[in-house]
Amino acid sequence: MIPDVAEPIVRQILAAKASATGVKPIVLDVGCSYGINAAVHRFPLTFSGLRHRYARREMRAIRSETLMGLDRNFYSAWPDVGLARFVGLDVSAPAIRYATAVGLLEQGIVADLEKEPLSTESARVLRSTDVIMSTGCIGYVTEKTFSKILDATQKHPWIISFVLRMFPYDSLAATFAKHGLVTERLTGATFIQRRFRDAEEFEGTLSTLAALGIDATGLESEGLFHADLILSRPESDARVAPLEDIVTVASGRGRPIGPRYVHVAGHEGLQVALEP
Questions:
Q1: I need a surface site. Which of 2, 8, 87, 169 has the fewest CB within 10 A?
Q2: pTM summary value
Q3: Does residue 225 contact residue 196 with C-beta atoms inside 8 Å?
Q4: In the structure, what pLDDT confidence band is assigned to residue 32 with cuts at 50, 70 and 90?
Q5: Are 232 and 196 in contact (CB under 8 A)?
Q6: What is the pLDDT of residues 41-53, one digit of tens each?
């Protein structure tokens, strides 16, 4: 559910960025997949609504090439209410091809920057980036990727990151500092990423958090991945408009999301159960 939960926060930050520069920012979505973040930001649509659209039997029977044509018309029929232009980076060539073909992304880059150098053409695409965002890739994507992106940019972009609490951010913050950016973490709120896929992931995550000294009570212990909002940008921008002044939040914790894994007390102590 992170695309829906993150969108109003991203909109607030992009509004602050546009106010500071007076231009419509270019956003690089790292780990963009099929351009869902662009879709829910640019159009009056939700991830939940799109999920229902594509899960229909009739839609699943349509060939990809045909669906691309239908989706081009579908998205162009909505008013673009977005505050930014989007480009994307992902390891999946089919996802990038789709997102650009249907008009969600202006341009897309297919690359695994954890392992590969940034090509000359990709560096050209990234040159004018104003904002970098990620809503779930950090922990799988490291400072290796972000260093290559930042080296290619001509500006000092803002970096919006929704980061699962189980993933440390210190090495990324240090990398951003080398590029002249300071890092702020929003206090007092977390953001729902998704349910745990199975009991093993649930228990493994709780163990990881405990090893890091992070209290999962009332958060991950309730069967949901929680992410922190972290914003990195030039210090001068942070002084003018601190993150706490830009963002007001609703975490989405109360939304109906289906069964989830939780701990319940039993005769043999805490046990994992699937709560309806």
A1: 8
A2: 0.88
A3: yes
A4: very high
A5: no
A6: 999 999 989 999 9
How far is Cα 76 from Cα 43, in angstroms, rounded to an integer? 9
At 113, is the secondary structure helix, strand, or coil?
Answer: coil
Q: Which helix (H) or strand (E) holds 210?
A: helix 199-211
| Exposed/middle/buried for residue 245 (C-beta within 10 Å: 0-12, 13-18, 19+) | exposed
pLDDT of residue 271: 85
Dist. CA 149–CA 155, nearest whole Å: 11
Q: Are 223 and 196 in contact (CB under 8 A)?
A: yes
Could you say which DSSP state residue 179 is in? Answer: T
Q: How far is CA 43 from CA 37, 99, 161, in A?
A: 10, 14, 21
Tokens of 110: 């297919």
The answer to whether residues 170 and 138 touch, using CB atoms and an 8 Å cutoff, is no
* Strand 260-266 relative to strand 269-275, pairing: antiparallel
Tell me the C-alpha distance between 179 and 159, whole Å. Answer: 12
Question: Is the separation of the CB atoms in 146 and 43 below 8 Å?
Answer: no
Q: Between 93-101 and 64-76, two packed helices, what is the crossing angle to 10 degrees?
A: 40
Residue 13 identity: I
Structure tokens given for 121: 């053409």
Structure tokens at 224: 């949901």
Question: SS3 breakdown of the chain: % helix, strand, coil, rounded to 5?
Answer: 40, 25, 35
Tokens of 213: 């000294």
Structure tokens at 53: 């659209």
Strand partners, 230: 161, 185
Residue among 140, 164, 149 nearest 29 (CA): 149
Residues in the chain: 276
What is the helix (H) or strand (E) element at residue 185, kind and residue range? Answer: strand 181-185
Closest CA relative to residue 230, chosen from 217, 248, 243, 218: 243
229 vs 10: CA distance, rounded Å: 10
